[in-house]
Every structure is written in structure tokens, then in C-alpha cells.
Design brief:
This protein is mostly helical and 192 residues long. The protein is built from six helices and no strands.
Length: 192
């Protein structure tokens, strides 16, 4: 099972790096591309969502016990940081605020942000460095977090106007679904 998890981890890292290169290169919206309110809200919300994902990933990278988890966490942090920078460039090019208005999560499908208390609890669990309980908690939190990204990206694919943002949203859906499958495999490996 460890070899399967290691192979999955290697495949994911490769996919993340490839996805980041694609996203930062070809998903750049052209100056004349149409942009609607859905595009702006999606990008603003994803910036915040990614920042939380980076925070969660860094806790896993520094406190994880298994090499597969640490590699996954590092890859998520690096990939999402590059995507944040790309999204901020888009918002600037569109002449839009870099952050969503207060309470915007309430109007974006009712999806709440990852609870700050959950991240704080994860940090406390990390103090017991190397515990299987921490790794299970980390995986479960990141699985839920990445599932929210899949849902947000789906709303952009169906309601956005910017071809670049919609293309990238489809890439987010695919990559986060792959991450979730990998994390489910890592959870199974922790049981043995």
C-alpha cells in the first residue's frame, strides 16, 4: 500500500506542476476577454480559499510524519501560491478589488470559509508532531477544503464569462478531484 501511495503522490506532484505551468501560462485572460460578476467573485473568493489552503498545507508539510503526506502538502502549498499570484494579476487587469466584499461567502452558494477554529485545532494537533491522529485530521480538513474548491470551480465553469477563468476553473476541478482521491488513499494507508 505504501508503494501505491508513493506512486500516487509522485503522479500528483507531476500533475500539480504541469497544471501550475499551464494555468500560469495559457489561462491568462486577454485584455479584451469578457468578464462578468461571476468571474470576479470566483477569483476573489478563490484567492482567500487558496490562502487558507496554503496555511493548511504548510501545517501538514511541517508536522506530517509520512513522506507522501509531506510531499503532497508541499506541492499543494507551492501550486496554490502560484495560482494566487495569477489570480491577483487577473483582478488587477480587470480593474477589480483584490478581495471580495465582507460576507461574500454568504452569497456564493452559501459555502462557508474553512472555519478558523478548525485550522487552529489543526495547529494544536500538529503540536503532537508525528501522530497518526494529526495526519487523519489534516487529510480530512484538506479533503473538505479541496471539495469546496471543486464546487466553486463548477459554478465558474457554468456561470463565468472569461474564457481564461473558465478554463482554469475546469483545471481546478480536475486537479482537486485527483488530490481528493490521493488523500483518500493516504487515509486508507493510515488505517493499516
Amino acid at each position: 500500500m505504501r508503494r501505491v501511495a508513493a506512486a500516487l503522490c509522485l503522479l500528483l506532484v507531476t500533475a500539480l506542476v504541469t497544471g501550475l505551468a499551464t494555468a500560469c501560462g495559457s489561462a491568462k485572460p486577454a485584455g479584451g476577454d469578457p468578464v462578468n460578476a461571476q468571474d470576479v467573485m470566483f477569483v476573489q473568493m478563490m484567492v482567500q480559499h487558496h490562502r487558507q489552503g496554503i496555511e493548511i498545507a504548510k501545517v501538514g508539510a511541517s508536522s506530517g510524519r509520512t513522506p507522501e503526506l509531506k510531499t503532497l502538502a508541499s506541492a499543494v502549498a507551492v501550486t496554490q501560491q502560484g495560482e494566487v499570484e495569477m489570480m491577483l494579476r487577473w483582478l488587477h487587469a480587470w480593474g477589480q478589488p483584490l478581495t471580495a466584499p465582507s460576507g461574500a461567502h454568504d452569497h456564493h452558494g452559501g459555502m462557508p470559509e474553512t472555519d478558523r477554529k478548525q485550522i487552529a485545532a489543526l495547529r494544536r494537533a500538529a503540536a503532537k508532531k508525528g501522530s497518526r491522529a494529526f495526519e487523519r485530521e489534516w487529510l480530512n480538513l484538506l479533503i473538505a477544503h479541496q471539495d469546496d474548491a471543486v464546487q466553486m470551480a463548477g459554478a465558474e465553469v457554468s456561470g463565468g464569462a472569461s474564457p481564461g477563468a473558465k478554463k482554469w476553473a475546469a483545471q481546478v476541478q480536475a486537479s482537486r478531484k485527483a488530490q481528493i482521491q490521493q488523500m483518500l488513499a493516504l487515509l486508507d494507508a493510515l488505517k493499516s
